[in-house]
Model the fold of this input.
Amino acid sequence: MGEFNVWTSLPAVAPEVGLAALAAIVLLLDAYLPQFKNRTRNIAYVTAAGMAALALTPFIWAPPAGTSELYWGGMIRHDALGQIFAVMLLLAGAITSLIAVEDSGAGQKSEFHLVIIVATMGGTLLAKSADLVMIFIALETLSIPLYMLAAFRRMDGKSAESGLKYFLFGSFTTALLLYGFSLLFGFTGTTSLAGIADGLASGTLLTSAFPVLVALLLVIVGFSFKISAVPFHFWTPDVYEGAPTPVTAFLSVGSKAASFMVFMRLLIEVFGLNPNALTLDNAVIQQFWVGLLTVFAILTMTLGNLLALRQNSFKRLLAYSSIAQAGYTLMGLAALQAQTAAGQDLAMASVSFYMFMYTFTNLVIFGGIIVFAEYTGRDQISDFAGLQRRNPWLALMMTIGLLSLAGIPPAAGFFGKLFLFQAAVQANLVGLAIIGVLNAIIGLYYYLVIIKIMYVDHGQDEEKALPLPRSYAWALGISTVVVLILGVIPAPIFDWAMQGAAAVRLALGS
Amino acid sequence: MIPLWMYLVVAAALFCIGMFGVLARRNGVGVLMSVELMLSAVNLNIVAFWRYSTPENTTGMVFAAFLFVVAAAEAAVGLAIIISVYRNRHSVIPEEADTLKG
Done:
C-alpha cells in the first residue's frame, strides 16, 4: 500500500464521495427550496440526474486494467468488478427515484430520494469492501435506510408491518453475521480479508477446521438472508408485498446485487481460491461451502418457482420470482470451486452479468406495476388483463422484462442464464446445471401466463387508456433498451466482468 | 489473569440466550432486546479476542466502537418502526400483524 495519499486514493471512492455530496445537495434543496407546484418532482429529477451522472465516475476514474489494488488502509478494493456493481447500483438508484415520482406514499415526499441516495452509497461501498469492518459498516449503511424505506408509508399498516418484519429479520441476521466475523477476527487477529486468509493458512491459532466451519456457517446464513435464499427466504414475500413498490424495486435489485458481490469476495478471498490460504483442512472447508451453496441453490430455485405458480398478487409473484433468480445466481457462487482459472473467472463474471441484467429487468417490471397501481389502485395479476389495449408500449416493455426473467432471447436473461449454466458445467456441477434448466422451464410457465393475460385476456376497464407519465417513459424506456442491448450484444459487459474477475483472481495469488 | 476461554464462553452464552429470545419472543420490542443481547455478545467476543491476541494494534477496539455506534443507530430506526406499527394497530406482536400472508 505504501504511503497514504488522499489524492491517489480518492478515485477508488469517487462514486461514494459524489453520492455524499449529492445527498447534501438534496438535503439543502429540501430545506431551503420554497414551496412551489412541482417541488418534490424537481428534487426527484435532481436526484436521478445526479446519480446517473455519477454512474460515469467509474469510467472516468477506472482502475488500471487487470489490477485489484487495496486503498484506504486496506478497506476498499479498486477493481473492475467493484466498478461494474457501482454503475449498476447508481443506475438502479437513479431509475428508482424516477419511477417513484408518481407514487403518492413514497416518491412524493422529498426525504425518500435522500434515503435512496444513502442506501445506494452503502451498496456501492459494500461491493468494493475488502475488510470485515468495512463490510459491516457498508452493509448497515445499505440496510438501515432500507428498513426506513420499507416502513415509509407511515399511515399504511401494511407498509409499517413490512418494515417491522424486514427490520427484525435483518437485524437478527446482521447479528449472526457479526458473530461469524468476530470469530474470524479472533482466529487471525486481523479484519482484512487477505489477512484472514493468510492467518487461516498459517494455522498457528487453530488446530482443527471445526471453528472455521462454525464461522463460515454463520457468515453463509447471514448472507443467505440478505439474498433471500431458501431456507432463509420467509421474510421476502411479506416485505416485498407490504413495502411501497419503488422501495421493493430497489430492495430486490440493489440490496441483492451488493450482497452477492461481497459474499463472492468473502468466499473467494477467505475460503476459496487463494492458493496460499487454507492449507489447514483446505479441502474440507471448500467442500463444506460448495456443498451447502449447492443445496441452497437447488432449494431456492425449486421452491421459489413452485410457490410463484400459485400467486395472485403481482408483487408477491415477483418476490417468489426473485427468490428463484437468487437460486440461479447461487449456482454461480457454487461454481467458484472450479479447478481452472478460466472456470473461476467465468463463475465470477456470470454472477456479475446476471446481477447487471437482473437489475434493469426487475426495474422495468416494477416500474410498470407502479404506473398501473397508481392509476388504477390495484396490483393483482388479473387486473392487468387487456393491458396491451390500454397502453401497448407499457405492455411491450413489461413483456420484454418478463421474457428476460424467463430467459428467452432476445432479452438479456437468456445470456445471463446461459453464462451461469456454463459456469456450473465448467465447475463439474452438471447435475446442478440440469436442475437449473428444469427450473427455468417451470419459470417460463408463470411468466408467459402474465404475458398472455396482458395481451389476450379481456379486462373490465379495457377502453380506458392508461397514460404513461414522461419520467416513467424515460426510466422504463432506458431500462428496456439496456435489457435488449445486453440480450443482443452481451459481450462488452461480460468481457468487462471477465477482466474484473481475472484481476480479483490475480490479486489473490500475490 | 482470567483466561480467554472464559470470556468466550460468556459471549457464546449471551449469544445463545439472545438467539433463543429472537426465536421465542413474540413481542417486537422483546425481539429487538434479544438482538441487542446478541450484538453485545459479539462485542464481548471482539474485545476479548483483541485484548488477548493483538493488543498492540487497535483494529479490534475500532471494530467494537463502530459496532456499538451502528447498533445504536439500528435500534433507533427499529424503535421508530415499532412505534409506527403500534400506532397503526395497537400491538407490537409481529404475528398479530398479519395482513401480509400467502
